[in-house]
Design brief:
- The protein is of the alpha+beta class.
- The chain has 15 helices and 17 strands.
- The chain has helices at residues 61-72, 80-84, 102-135, 173-183, 192-195, 233-250, 271-274, 290-297, 341-349, 406-418, 426-431, 479-486, 493-522, 562-571, 573-585; strands spanning 3-6, 18-21, 27-38, 41-52, 144-153, 199-200, 209-220, 259-261, 266-268, 302-309, 322-329, 353-356, 373-383, 393-399, 460-466, 535-540, 543-547.
- Strands 5, 6, 7, 10, 11, 12, 13, 14 and 15 form a 9-stranded mixed β-sheet that branches. It has a two-stranded antiparallel sheet with strand order 1-2.
- The protein starts with a strand and ends with a helix.
Length: 587
């Protein structure tokens, strides 16, 4: 006897599955019927499967349908719509589960569970699709404003800050930030960084971290009026039309009768124009909680700290008054070499003021830099925690602007001085590019950079970027603001501090464990005896380089003059680039 089983249905938008199983004959036929109800319209879809007992399938579904109908009612096969009717006597037939074996009942329960899971996945997929469609935004009709974002990041997880034009081994910080801004629909993916006037304060290289990096950009805003709010062109035109029409009606002669002149185009007064209305400004609107929105989709290694409304002319790079870098180091190297901190402190003072730093940076011919003068306002060293005699120290460097790898080159020379390989006067000598540094005591002129390895990137941090109070006033999200966006998710400011404290605690535990690992290993290894005939060069970050013979900086090979390097690039790669651009422009 044929058994009809109603698998499931829901009330609003649903499907029904009917399994019609024929226990007699040479095959089992499973007929699955999907019924969709939407807006009062019924659509029915039929999917029929034929399972041959003992394996195999029947390829001709039409023959399978005929076979099934013949088994059901051999004389007068009913039409398919009759079989699909949910309220029909066939569909509501009782199932005789009492005749099923234990294995058959278990199999049936598994099928019911799988069917329910499939329905849940389908509902969630439809919900995600509807949400994505709702999130699609026409950026040409959105209100915008310019803001600054202050954030921190772990440099060792990224291939530097700036996005690269070619694939990199690790992602860059800006890549991850852009993805988060796209996800939250704050900037237009079609126009990217150029379309939002993206500007960064300080470019950090691979492995370098930041505690107070700043970028500025135009973003979508939830406000409709106020300082710095940019109205979409369509809305601005509607407001202009509405403001002009009443004036024309009061003084029709001024507009030449019923025609309105708008420069390049003219239109006649009609009902559609006279009914143009200005957008309604909702005074209860609150700005997007930018901090919480972005932290919700950013990885823990990048955290937005605050945001600030800024003027359209503001630039995170050119509006910055100074940049503060910190470089952390240990007074004793892993090989046991002790640094002379007094010598290091004295040498650091020579950097104060404005100097030519071409011997303390990496030359980038592509940028064609000819002015290497920069001003340093602070250069000193101090213990991170004065209560720990053997704890870490930090080198603080504050200046208006910096060259490529300038801080790491400065730190490398300071390590040479503190290790006793160079005299304190080497700093003034390397700064004496054109003889202007020589005062009472004559010092050599070094107009080309000697070859030396810069310090490690790990301990370097862009600590802070400073702006005038009238230009930037940082805004902090409240827990209430964050809950409106996140629905109570773990992205509130309070939760942010808890997350960062948790990361810090894990790092402290890891450091303590590594100290115990080192102590355990020392029980089975002898202390290294320093060879007096070799020199250990401290590179920071736990890195050292052992040399059989140390060559003083002034005796090492030197690079070519900056003018020569720049000219070579202009006549080779630069010329090829110019030719490509000219060819592309002529097409």
């Amino acid at each position: 006897m044929t058994q009809v089983i109603l698998v499931g249905e829901s009330s609003l938008e649903y499907w029904n599955e009917y399994w019609l199983i024929t226990p007699r004959g040479q095959f089992d036929i499973v007929l699955i019927i999907f019924q969709f109800f939407r807006g009062g319209l019924e659509k029915e879809y039929l999917r029929l499967h034929l399972r041959v007992r003992g394996g195999g399938r029947v390829a001709n579904l039409r023959h399978a349908a005929d076979a099934w109908l013949g088994l059901w009612m051999p004389s007068t096969p009913p039409p398919i719509p009759f079989l699909l009717r949910a309220g029909s006597r066939i569909a509501m037939a009782q199932t005789r589960y009492e005749n099923w074996t234990r294995e058959e009942l278990i199999g049936r329960l598994h099928k019911l569970d799988m069917s329910e899971e499939n329905r849940d996945r389908s509902r969630k997929g439809d919900a995600r699709k509807r949400f994505k469609e709702q999130q699609d935004i026409d950026f040409s009709n959105t209100y915008r404003r310019k803001i600054a974002l202050k954030f921190c990041y772990d440099g060792w997880d990224y291939n530097g800050l700036a996005i690269q034009g070619e694939p990199t081994q690790l992602p860059t910080v800006e890549e991850v930030l852009l993805k988060a801004l796209y996800t939250k629909r704050l900037i237009d993916p079609a126009t990217g960084m150029a379309g939002c006037d993206w500007a960064r304060c300080g470019r950090t290289d691979k492995g370098v971290s930041a505690a107070g990096q700043v970028i500025s950009l135009f973003v979508r805003t939830n406000l409709r009026s106020g300082p710095g709010i940019i109205t979409p062109a369509s809305v601005a035109l509607a407001e202009a039309v509405e403001s002009i029409i009443p004036l024309q009606k009061q003084n029709p002669e001024a507009g030449g009768g019923d025609a309105f002149d708008f420069g390049d185009f003219t239109f006649e007064e009609d009902e559609e124009v006279t009914q143009v209305s200005s957008p309604v400004v909702d005074s209860s609107r609150k700005e997007f909680p930018f901090v919480s929105m972005l932290n919700r989709v950013l990885p823990p290694s990048i955290r937005i700290l605050a945001w600030a409304p800024v003027s359209d002319s503001f630039s995170a790079r050119f509006s910055c008054r100074y940049r503060h870098y910190k470089y952390f180091f240990a007074p004793i190297s892993p090989k046991g070499t002790t640094l002379d901190l007094d010598k290091m402190r004295t040498a650091a003072l020579s950097f104060l003021g404005e100097h030519d730093f071409r011997n303390f940076c990496k030359l980038d011919a592509q940028k064609q830099i000819t002015n290497f003068k920069r001003r340093i306002d602070r250069a000193d060293i101090s213990p991170v925690d004065p209560t720990l005699p053997d704890g870490l120290w930090v080198f603080n460097l504050v200046g208006t602007a910096f060259l490529w790898h300038q801080v790491r080159h400065i730190m490398a020379v300071l390590f040479m001085v503190a290790s006793g390989n160079e005299d304190v006067s080497i700093v003034r000598t390397l700064l004496n590019v054109d003889g202007s540094e020589a005062q009472a005591n004559p010092i050599p002129t070094v107009d080309c950079k000697p070859e030396y390895e810069m310090a490690d990137a790990l301990p370097l941090v862009l600590w802070d970027c400073d702006y005038a109070q009238e230009d930037v006033q940082w805004v902090l999200d409240t827990d209430g603001d964050a809950e409106e966006d996140a629905g109570g998710a773990s992205d509130t400011p309070t939760r942010l501090l808890e997350q960062m404290a948790s990361v810090n605690e894990r790092a402290r535990i890891e450091t303590t464990m590594r100290e115990h690992f080192l102590e355990a290993a020392q029980k089975y290894r002898r202390t290294r005896i320093q060879n007096p005939s070799v020199s250990d060069i401290n590179l920071g970050g736990g890195r050292t380089r052992t040399l059989a013979r140390y060559v003083p900086l002034l005796q090492r090979p030197r690079q070519e003059p900056v003018e020569v390097i720049n000219e070579r690039w202009r006549s080779t790669r630069g010329q090829r680039r110019t030719d490509r651009l000219a060819a592309a422009g002529g097409r």
